[in-house]
Amino acid sequence: MKALVYDGVETLGYRDVPDPTPRDGEYLIRVEAVGICGSDMHAYLGHDSRRPAPLVLGHEAAGVIQGGPNDGMRVTVNPLVTCMACNACKAGRENLCPERQIISMQPREGAFAQYVAMPMRNLVEVPSGVPLEKAALAEPLAVSWHAARLALGALHPSMERRAVVIGGGAIGLAAALALKAMEVDDVLIVEPNAARRAFLTDHCGHTVVEKTTDFAPIVIDAVGFGATRASASQLVEAGGVIAHVGLGDENPGLDVRRTTLQEITFIGTYTYTAQDFRDTALAIFDGRLGPLNWTETRKLSDGYEAFQDLREGRVAAPKIILNPWP
Fold it and tell me: Taking every annotated instance into account, which residue ranges of this chain make up the domain 4Fe-4S ferredoxin-type (predicted)?
């Protein structure tokens, strides 16, 4: 099969690699759509020791099952494979499983390829009327659905349901969409890139600004740099909630003194539970997350150029979807 392989810092090669061999209980999936994630970009830049070269990246996938009793089923892929036996898994907190694996990290190759193998429990059937390009958004949307759910769960009932989302990329936009689906109507997105601001305003119907000084009971940092953690610390209301979902860098920025004195709740959020993923997929299928018309599709063979364009800030759309087939 053809795959886009991470070969080293800012180096990707499109070439033939062996087809995946499904393990017991796994199915072979013909990948029809796979998104480029911020974590793929971190690996591409050499910033993720969990993803050493050479490696097939990509974990935001949808496709069609090949063979077996479910041959031909259209599915979206939950890329997080867990043990199903530990206390975290039994409690429905699979994202905290100590044995968790995710495709695009060793020992599981990713989905920037024509085929990938996954357990059936990680697959959600996609209705015939839903394009697989939209179904592939279930993974990044689930990340933000999980963050929004935790933030709202931690918000004191006396406080307004109002939010600021820092970052207008796919995770930030997805957080705004999830909050709206959870009946938070007042959501402001902060995005410094002018082209992306214009795109979001034209395509997504959200209020998007370059910067703000307005306080909010909920602040979601969908970027995760020291500077955005500092902004979150400044923008959150006393007694409010910061949900931190980005992994931009490890630099300081959180104002621990203000967090303590103003009794601010800080929540680190990682991926999603299996239920979050299913709930997100259903919200895509029934339209609660909107038309999802904010993606750009390119061929997997042009993946290296897509990464370069993202690196240089030349992409206005929050998400690039790659198609592995000519």
Answer: 73-108
d(CA 283, CA 290): 9
The Cα–Cα gap between 256 and 267 comes to 13
For residue 121, the 8-state DSSP code is G
Put simply, whether the predicted model's pTM sits higher than 0.85 gets the answer yes
Q: Strand, helix or coil at 43?
A: helix
Question: Is the bond preceding 217 in cis, omega lying within 30 degrees of 0?
Answer: no
Domain 141-268 in this protein, CATH class: alpha beta
Contact status, residue 204 vs residue 183, Cβ threshold 8 Å: no
> What tokens does 312 get?
């240089």
Determine the length of the chain.
326
Give me the amino acid identity at 286.
D
**What is the DSSP secondary structure assignment for residue 255, as one 8-state letter?**
-
Is there a contact between 300 and 2 (Cβ–Cβ < 8 Å)?
yes
Are 2 and 113 in contact by the 8 Å Cβ rule? The answer is: yes
**Bond from prior residue into 107 cis (ω within 30 degrees of 0):** yes
Matching CATH number, 2-137+292-323, of 3.30.110.70, 3.30.565.10, 3.40.50.720, 3.90.180.10: 3.90.180.10
| 101 band by pLDDT with thresholds 50, 70 and 90 | very high
Q: What is the pLDDT of residues 46-99, one digit of tens each?
A: 988 889 999 999 999 999 999 999 999 999 999 999 999 999 999 999 999 999
